[in-house]
Design goal:
The structure holds 2 protein chains of 2 kinds.
Chain A: E1 5-16, E2 19-30, E3 34-38, H1 45-53, E4 60-65, E5 68-69, H2 75-81, E6 83-86, H3 98-106, H4 113-127, H5 142-155, E7 160-164, H6 172-185, E8 190-194, H7 198-204, E9 207-212, E10 215-220, H8 222-227, H9 229-236
Parallel strand pairs in A: 3-8, 3-9, 6-7, 7-8
Antiparallel strand pairs in A: 1-2, 1-4, 4-5, 9-10
Helix pairs in contact in A: 3-4, 3-5, 4-5
Chain B: H1 3-21, H2 24-49, H3 58-75, H4 79-101, H5 106-126, H6 128-131, E1 137-138, E2 145-146, E3 149-150, H7 154-177, H8 179-189, H9 191-195, H10 201-227, E4 229-230, H11 238-250, H12 257-275, H13 279-293, H14 297-304
Helix pairs in contact in B: 1-7, 2-7, 2-10, 2-11, 2-12, 3-4, 3-5, 3-10, 4-10, 7-8, 7-10, 8-10, 11-12, 11-14, 12-13
Classes of the chains: A alpha/beta, B mainly alpha.
Chain lengths: 238, 311
């Protein structure tokens, strides 16, 4: 069965002055897959996903989502089409309660009050924040704020969930829960995961794209990537 | 009925009841406070809920006032349509200023709104032949009649101010509890996150500016009708600062706060000016103390201290 493409890029580039942060990246993510994007610090991972979801404009190239060219669409329009983005640096509504945070993610696409509440409760249960619904988001422990960030992603019931270093700063046990959570998410959504923790990547990814100096240097299954020499050189230096 | 709705209906009922018991002087003060509280509530939609700090809201107040006043004085429009014209003028001004000023943010936004407001003030002076410039003009008592009611009479004036106040209080309450209202709060708290939840931040901000400006215009038009005077001083900088002060005092981002702040400030000035000629010093010290010890304003502090349900 041929995989259906959900998101693809064609020769996507981004320049900052003379520096090319992302160079001619062509990606193709299929519906239902978990794709990991890895690479050393400064490889251009965040710049690349920011262009996917419209936070920064591309210098050149094209982004296609569900067969539609979204390159010139502003971020909120792309999100409304079914992308969700969770921030690398936790970005919740600190003054609002946990449930209000998720409500904002949910209420955009659901009209009835009761259904919103039900969806909020379900989402919070799913990430394990059910007991904390009434707490003020800014008062939560860091790990819980990360989970809330993910809940806000899930609350949108996105077609594509983009997670920017979701496990950064989490403890080992929290990471285990996270891996289980993303496994269950990936049954319904496509996931693009930027991740430094290689164990998480190996456990979750169907396919891995490796970025270095703004270019794709390798792409393949976890097994292929593990054996890839260019990847090892990029990571170990050489 | 929730506690929040109950509280606001209670305030409205109390103000209606006060009409019958207050001595003449306080009766007059309260009518004025209610109109100015409408001005502050309008300001609060933008500042308190959306996090947009404008330094030019006098222009919306003046647009409503002059829109109404000129229509009556120059073109003999009857009171009710003139009042609506005043509101329409503020609505249009808010739309235009919003579209232009929202291209900026932060300090630049403050400067741009201040600049637009000063431009309106200068325009009022420039077209002195129509607006009577600095002096302004009075609206004769004979003009301020509607359906046999004399809006210049204390009782009807109070009742009219109360009516407008009630509509705007319940209206802003409904707004901030609505889905759109929650998005405004989200923008105030974290604009980038709101955008990345799929909301069109710019459109929501524009809506806030237009709603805010229109409410402030209604306050300006009502003030002109009820107190019979249309003047350029209402378009000057102090009238852009007053609503900010009232809102800060009462509690930015609370529905009832603007009224509490306006009431507090009126009586603070009233009482201290009875004591000393240097009453602005008293007012200044009181404001400094409040900012130091209750930085979230009176109602904001109550909300922090247990009344979490306060909208």
């Amino acid at each position: 069965m041929a995989a259906v493409s959900l998101l693809s890029t064609h020769a996507l580039s981004r320049n900052y002055g003379g520096l090319q942060a992302v160079k001619n990246v062509s990606l193709d993510i299929s519906q239902g897959e978990v794709r990991a994007l890895i690479g050393p610090n400064g490889a251009g991972k965040t710049t690349l996903v920011s262009m996917l979801c419209g936070r920064i404009p591309a210098t050149s190239g094209q982004v296609v989502f569900e067969g539609r060219d979204v390159t010139t669409l502003p971020a909120h329009r792309r999100i409304a089409l079914g992308m969700a983005y969770t921030f690398q640096i936790t970005s919740v509504f600190a003054e609002l309660s946990v449930s209000e945070n998720v409500e904002l993610a949910v209420q955009r696409h659901i009209a009835e009050r009761q259904k919103i509440t039900a969806q909020v409760d379900r989402t919070l249960e799913r990430v394990g924040l059910g007991r904390m619904a009434d707490r003020t988001a800014g008062d939560l422990a860091y790990g819980h704020q990360r989970l809330l960030e993910i809940a806000m992603g899930l609350g949108q019931t996105p077609k594509l969930l983009i997670l920017d270093e979701p496990t950064q700063g989490l403890s080992d046990s929290e990471i285990e829960d996270f891996v289980a959570l993303i496994r269950s998410v990936s049954e319904k959504s496509t996931v693009l995961l930027i991740e430094h923790n290689i164990n998480v990547v190996m456990a979750l990814a169907d396919k891995i794209t490796v970025l270095n100096f703004g270019e794709i240097i390798a792409e393949g299954t976890p097994g292929e990537i593990r054996a890839n020499e260019a990847v090892q050189t990029a990571y170990l230096g050489g | 009925m929730s506690r929040a709705v109950g509280l606001h209906l209670g305030v409205i009922a109390a103000l209606l009841a006060l009409q019958f018991v207050l001595p003449a002087y306080h009766h007059g003060v309260l009518a004025r406070v209610m109109v100015m509280a409408v001005f502050a509530m309008g300001y609060n939609v933008m500042f308190g809920y959306t996090g947009l700090l404008s330094l030019g809201h006098a222009m919306f107040f003046a647009a409503g006032m002059y829109g109404m006043g000129l229509a009556m004085k120059q073109w003999d429009v009857p009171l009710v349509p003139a009042f609506l014209l005043g509101i329409a003028a503020a609505f249009l001004l808010a739309l235009v200023v919003g579209v232009l000023a929202l291209r900026t943010a932060g300090v630049a936004f403050m400067i741009v709104t201040l600049m637009f407001s000063q431009s309106l003030f200068l325009a009022i002076l420039h077209f002195g032949a129509i607006t009577r410039g600095d002096e302004g003009f009075a609206l004769a008592r004979s003009l301020r009649q509607v359906a046999g009611l004399d809006l210049a009479a204390p009782a009807t004036r109070y009742f009219a101010a109360w009516g407008l106040f009630s509509v705007v209080l319940l209206g802003t309450l409904a707004l901030v509890r609505s889905r759109r209202g929650r998005v405004l709060v989200a923008i105030r708290e974290n604009e980038e996150r709101t955008r990345m939840l799929g909301y069109d931040v710019w459109r929501h901000k524009l809506m806030a500016v237009v709603v805010s400006g229109t409410i402030c215009g209604a306050a300006g038009a009502a003030y002109g009708v009820l107190f019979g005077y249309v003047g350029a001083s209402f378009s000057q900088v102090p009238y852009s600062i007053f609503p900010l002060l009232w809102v800060l005092l009462g509690g930015a981002g609370t529905v009832i706060g603007p009224f509490v702040g306006t009431l507090f400030m009126f009586y603070l000035i009233d009482l201290s000016s009875g004591l000393t000629d240097a009453y602005m010093l008293v007012v200044g010290v009181a404001l400094v103390l409040l900012t130091l010890f209750l930085p979230r304003g009176l109602m904001g502090s109550l909300r922090d201290r247990g009344m979490k349900w306060l909208p």
